[in-house]
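To the wet lab folks,

You asked to see what we're planning to order before we commit. Fair enough. Below is the target structure as tokens, and below that is the sequence we designed to fit it. If anything looks off to you, flag it before the synthesis order goes out.
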């Protein structure tokens, strides 16, 4: 079988069969992208819930942080697609010693578009991937862009409760917040910090977003936070739209337009 060398988003050169016939995907948003592109996937994680037909029929190889390596080996993959943040580094390193592993590293919309195009080339779906990337760019370009002098709405985006955790800077969620014209009040803290309610009150936050994942926030949590920030607007939001960086990006701008003024 022909093989090609591809550079992943960690700068690693990976020798991959062309086209790969037995792909294992370790990341939900990239699993959905592989389905969109019509790739040959044999294994997914238990969190790869889209599309439903794959979730019901594909072999599940554990969770994103707790992979079942023996199950992956049993599938004899000719390509594994992982992500720097979502997967455990030690487990991915172990897989690299046995299989071709292409790793994404997504912080910005540009990173996501680069990943989509790269995977399209790898799985012999370049034209479909380029078209998808172009559509995503057009949809995001249609969003209103704040003017230079416009004061952006002070916003906190919660991903967990007990302890309270928010999306900080250097995250894809932070990038999507900026695209929406929101000022992430915790952008000065990297990744996903644990915060106190005193810290939240001190930010002067005007909007609080409670994500549907990974913690399943519900209506009862709105009233809990409303007592702490009585003047703020508090919304339940679809976490997939803010954190999934594959083909779901095609629908994110329309969703942003419906929930934000």
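Sequence we intend to order:
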């Amino acid at each position: 079988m022909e093989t090609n060398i591809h550079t992943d988003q960690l700068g690693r050169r990976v020798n991959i069969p062309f086209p790969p016939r037995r792909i294992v995907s370790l990341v939900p948003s990239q699993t959905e992208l592989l389905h969109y592109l019509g790739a040959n996937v044999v294994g997914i994680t238990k969190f790869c819930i889209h599309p439903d037909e794959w979730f019901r029929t594909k072999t599940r190889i554990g969770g994103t942080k707790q992979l079942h390596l023996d199950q992956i080996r049993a599938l004899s993959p000719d390509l594994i697609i992982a992500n720097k943040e979502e997967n455990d580094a030690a487990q991915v390193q172990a897989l690299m010693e046995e299989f071709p592993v292409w790793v994404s590293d997504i912080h910005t919309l540009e990173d996501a578009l680069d990943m989509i195009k790269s995977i399209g080339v790898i799985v012999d779906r370049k034209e479909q991937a380029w078209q998808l990337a172009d559509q995503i760019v057009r949809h995001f370009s249609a969003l209103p862009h704040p003017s230079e002098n416009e004061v952006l709405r002070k916003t906190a985006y919660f991903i967990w409760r007990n302890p309270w955790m928010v999306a900080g800077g250097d995250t894809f969620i932070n990038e999507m917040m900026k695209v929406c014209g929101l000022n992430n009040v915790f952008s000065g803290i990297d990744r996903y910090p644990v915060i106190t309610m005193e810290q939240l009150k001190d930010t002067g936050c005007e909007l609080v977003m409670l994500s549907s994942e990974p913690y399943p926030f519900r209506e009862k949590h709105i009233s809990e936070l409303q007592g702490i920030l009585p003047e703020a607007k508090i919304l339940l939001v679809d976490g997939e739209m803010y954190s999934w960086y594959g083909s779901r990006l095609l629908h994110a701008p329309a969703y942003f337009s419906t929930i934000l003024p």
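Structural context that might help your review: The mean pLDDT is 95. The CA atoms of residues 136 and 249 lie 6 Å apart.

Thanks,
Computational group
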